[in-house]
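Handout, section B. The chain below has 209 residues.
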Amino acid sequence: MSQSYQNQNQNPLDHLIRMLGGLPGLGSRSARRIALHLLTHKIERMMPLARAISDAAEAIHTCPDCGNLDTVAPCRICLDEKRDRSLLCVVASVSDLWAIERTHAYRGLYHVLGGVLSALDGVGVQNLDLDRLPDRTVSLGTQEVILALSATVDGQSTAHYITDLLAAHPATGGIRVTRLAHGVPVGGELDYLDDGTIMTAMNARGRLL
């Protein structure tokens, strides 16, 4: 047994289960099932997974420009000359960036905040990539900043902060700030929607005629 395990007073199996249980969406029961599966399929599952994790840790980096994850820095999105540099989409996380990219509906650049402002979780301005945003919009020649943040209290608070931040900057006064449309989802039935969603959809209704 290694010294690190001795210091933690646990064996390698307990340590594996504890590490797996700390992953998002996994509890102790799921972690035990995964650990058992890996240990009983070491050659075809566990060892390739260990190598993949090691390779990813060494090869994938955070883009210094937008905050995306890629094997090159700047990332391929930032390096793509076909991207519309007049558009900058602000997202909370890389997973949100990936979700938008899957739609193939957006061809601008991104700015990953690394989360949203949350007093309850202790996430403040200093914990997010906010201070760099105004200067980045200026250097890119951004004409529109799209706030693709969640429709939660924290997400909307972050959106308001960014709007005020850009409005206060002397060189970003003419930038258009927009947000994703909120309301009734495609295929949604009113009877199954919460009151807040219906109210937002009603206030943001569009003209047909």
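Note. The domain at 69-179 is CATH 3.40.1360.10 (Dna Topoisomerase Vi A Subunit; Chain: A, domain 2). Compare this with the example in section A.
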